[in-house]
Amino acid sequence: MTEADIRRLIAAERSEMAALLRELSADQWDAPTLCEGWRVREVVAHLTMPYRYSTPRFLFELAKSRGRFNPMSDRLARQDAAALTADELVATLEANVNHPWKPPGGGYEGALSHDVIHGLDITVGLGLDRQVPAERLSVVLGGLSPKHLKYFGVDLTGTELRADDLDWTYGSGRPVSGSAQDLLLTVCGRTLPAGRLRTS
């Protein structure tokens, strides 16, 4: 895929998520997601952080957290979720569907992964039946590597993940099957609702 193709997929994912978020109730905004300790509003605050923080501000906040990204990310998500309304958070996402943000070292594929994974944190956490289009999942799954497993603290030794709705496998050993998006969440260390994966 070309860079323009990936950016098209990013814009589509952000647009669809913004439309979905517009339909959520107040209770759903305060419901838990698959991101441990984060409600929907914290996840959306995190998703929109790159559009709201300049590079100097980001570096300042990172320094406040002694260079530790995860503690900084958690602190800012909670802070911004408390300061911004649901409408303000969605409006920020809507205004930035074509924003050129890329995670350091991740390229536009990394930006797509960021949006897809956190979108699933929300929809699966809420029990919504949203299916991420196969074209987007293929890009995200195709970019997985051992370093991602290490980052998320996931050990797949002796396990082969097999998507039953996409031509994708990862690892070797005892087969674990499920939808491509559920397997993606597994790789990211998320705890899925019971019964979504099958072992052979």
UniProtKB/TrEMBL annotation:
Transmembrane segments: none annotated. Residues 11-96 form the Mycothiol-dependent maleylpyruvate isomerase metal-binding domain. Coiled coil: none annotated. SUPFAM superfamilies: DinB/YfiT-like putative metalloenzymes. Gene3D superfamilies: dinb family like domain. It comes from the Bacteria. InterPro entries: DinB/YfiT-like (IPR034660), Maleyloyr_isom (IPR017517), MDMPI_metal-binding (IPR024344). This is Uncharacterized protein (TIGR03083 family).
